[in-house]
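URGENT: need a sanity check before tomorrow's submission.

F., can you look over the Manganese transport regulator record below? I want to be sure the sequence and structure line up before it goes out.
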Amino acid sequence: MPESMSKTQYLQTILELGGSNEKISNKAIAEHLKVTPSSVSDMLAKLQESGDVEVQPYYGVTLTASGRKTALKLIRSHRLFEVFLHDKLGLSLAESHMNADNLDHDADEKMINSLDTFLGTPRYCPHGLLIPDEHYNYKPTILQTLAATKDGAVITINSYSEDFELLEYIEMIHLDIAQTWLVKGRLPFDGPIILINQDDQTEVQVSLKSANFIFVN
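C-alpha cells as predicted:
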C-alpha cells in the first residue's frame, strides 16, 4: 500500500471513530484497519510530525484541524468515486469500493467538485454513507447496528461500513439498503441473526460479526 494512501486511510479511520472530539485508542484503530498495534504507533508518529494528529501517550489520538480536513477530503473523494463506479459504470458495491481506493487519494479538489456536479450532487454513497459537501460539512447520523437490535424488532437497512469483504457478503445475501426486515431471532453460541424480509417473506441469516457493521433504523 502506498504511504500516501496509508496516511489518508488512517486519518479517515480516526475521523470515523470520533477523533474530532475525543481520543481514539491505538487498539481501536488497529482493530478497524486490521493492522498490528506497532503499525498504528509508527503511522501515528508520522501523522503527528506532519501536524495531522495530536497523540497523548496511554490516552489516545485526536485529529488536528488540518488532519480533519484531509480526512474529509478523502471521504468526499472516495464516496463520489464509488457513486460514479457503481451508478454509471455498473460495478458492484465491493468493486466500486476497491477501485475508489485506487482513485480517491490522487484526485484534486477541482476534479472532485466537477465529479460531484456531474453526478447531481449525491448525498450518500452506494452503501448508504453520507458524503461531505463541497464545504466539507459532515454530520453523519449515529445509528444502531443490526447486532444491537432486539428480537421481534422491525428494522430498515440504512448503511454498511466500508469494507470489501463485508460488501461482498452483503451482496451475496441480498441485504439491500431501504429493505425492511423482521428480526426473527438469533442462533445460540454467537450464531447468526435470522431476518425475514417484510416484502416477500424470504429469510436470511446474517453473521454476528457482519451485523456489527450493518446500520439500521
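My own read: Confidence is low (pLDDT under 50) at residues 1-5. The domain at 3-63 is CATH 1.10.10.10 (Arc Repressor Mutant, subunit A). If you see anything odd, call me.
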